[in-house]
């Protein structure tokens, strides 16, 4: 499908409306927008409830009416209470039939185990995301521990107190995702999920997480974009210790190509920010943003060889605390790696054990 002529600005069809915690806004018939709090600078996540019907588990030939949940929020008392309010006031007495997780990050995955157990509902997600969630919940993750400390140190972050905090963060993921459901149903790229008689196509995305799945219903003109396409902030795209030579930014930009030909009228339901129309415009804005950062980095590495830590002031113009620095370091490495792996920068492991990047002439 081709776009109609795109607008020069994003269209927010619900204006400044936001659902209060524990309440909903109907963004399309049978599609409810929920908003749950997060204890971070990014202080919310959008979740989605879709009216659904599936074959009845105990009555052959019969169907069961209910809801499909897309993403869950972190596991904490406030989010559980919000879900109980939703259950009491907005499920219309119908059960949750399945839980879809776009990816394994805590704000999307945290309460999956609770919702699945409460409703005897299966979890649906991609294999890479499920396996990464299982590993992270057991303490093997990119969020902390000795391998992550060594990775950051190799890219120039050598402040002892900061790295001690990172080493201790092995419990970061399990603190928000205390369990992962013991089984799941696999989502795969270009497969369809049938939701109340309509097909939602899985669009795989890389660079932000291992195998993120967005959902697009052409018949309804709706894209549940997860974290791959956000209206007002750029998605975190990082290289991590488990894949130290990764080219995450290239993967992310390639993934956006799968969404850029959606009709301009498509209603995009993002995980953060407000629902909007104008996917092609937003993708163009994101490409321009990263092009600008890459150009600035290339210029900076022409003047002198830089580590990822050295490059942080080029990419981020604000002070960063340790939590924010972990994301910023991953982003810095991702941008440097894209330039390195495309041949625009050279990478050298110097005598102090730190990787630095430079142009051929610097």
TrEMBL record:
<protein>
    <submittedName>
        <fullName>MBL fold metallo-hydrolase</fullName>
    </submittedName>
</protein>
<dbReference type="InterPro" id="IPR048933">
    <property type="entry name" value="B_lactamase-like_C"/>
</dbReference>
<dbReference type="InterPro" id="IPR036388">
    <property type="entry name" value="WH-like_DNA-bd_sf"/>
</dbReference>
<dbReference type="Pfam" id="PF00753">
    <property type="entry name" value="Lactamase_B"/>
</dbReference>
<feature type="domain" description="Metallo-beta-lactamase">
    <location>
        <begin position="44"/>
        <end position="272"/>
    </location>
</feature>
<dbReference type="InterPro" id="IPR036866">
    <property type="entry name" value="RibonucZ/Hydroxyglut_hydro"/>
</dbReference>
<dbReference type="InterPro" id="IPR050662">
    <property type="entry name" value="Sec-metab_biosynth-thioest"/>
</dbReference>
<dbReference type="Pfam" id="PF21221">
    <property type="entry name" value="B_lactamase-like_C"/>
</dbReference>
<dbReference type="InterPro" id="IPR001279">
    <property type="entry name" value="Metallo-B-lactamas"/>
</dbReference>
């Amino acid at each position: 499908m081709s776009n109609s002529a795109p607008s020069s600005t994003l269209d927010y069809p619900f204006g400044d409306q936001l659902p209060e915690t524990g309440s909903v806004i109907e963004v399309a018939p049978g599609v409810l927008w929920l908003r749950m709090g997060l204890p971070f600078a990014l202080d919310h996540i959008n979740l989605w409830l879709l009216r659904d019907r599936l074959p009845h588990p105990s009555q052959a030939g019969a169907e069961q009416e209910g809801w499909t949940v897309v993403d869950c929020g972190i596991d904490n008392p406030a989010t559980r209470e919000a879900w109980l309010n939703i259950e009491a006031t907005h499920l219309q007495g119908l059960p949750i039939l399945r839980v879809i997780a776009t990816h394994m990050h805590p704000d999307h995955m945290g309460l999956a185990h609770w919702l699945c157990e409460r409703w005897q509902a299966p979890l649906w997600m991609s294999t890479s995301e499920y396996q990464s969630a299982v590993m992270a919940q057991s303490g093997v993750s990119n969020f902390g521990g000795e391998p992550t400390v060594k990775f950051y140190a190799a890219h120039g972050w050598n402040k002892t107190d900061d790295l001690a905090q990172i080493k201790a963060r092995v419990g970061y993921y399990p603190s928000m995702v205390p369990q992962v459901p013991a089984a799941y149903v696999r989502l795969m790229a270009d497969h369809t999920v049938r939701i109340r008689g309509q097909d939602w196509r899985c669009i795989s995305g890389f660079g932000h997480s291992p195998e993120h799945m967005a959902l697009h219903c052409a018949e309804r003109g709706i894209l549940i974009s997860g974290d791959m396409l956000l209206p007002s902030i750029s998605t975190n795209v990082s290289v991590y210790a488990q894949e130290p030579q990764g080219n995450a930014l290239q993967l992310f930009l390639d993934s956006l190509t799968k969404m850029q030909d959606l009709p301009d009228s498509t209603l995009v339901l993002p995980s953060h920010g407000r629902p909007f129309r104008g996917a092609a415009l937003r993708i163009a804005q994101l490409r321009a943003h990263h092009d600008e950062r890459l150009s600035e980095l290339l210029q900076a590495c022409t003047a002198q060889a830089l580590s990822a830590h050295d490059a942080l002031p080029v990419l981020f113009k604000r002070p960063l605390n340790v939590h924010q620095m972990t994301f910023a370091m991953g982003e810095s490495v991702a941008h440097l790696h894209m330039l390195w792996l495309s041949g625009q920068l050279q990478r050298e492991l110097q005598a102090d054990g730190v990787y630095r990047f430079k142009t051929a002439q610097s």
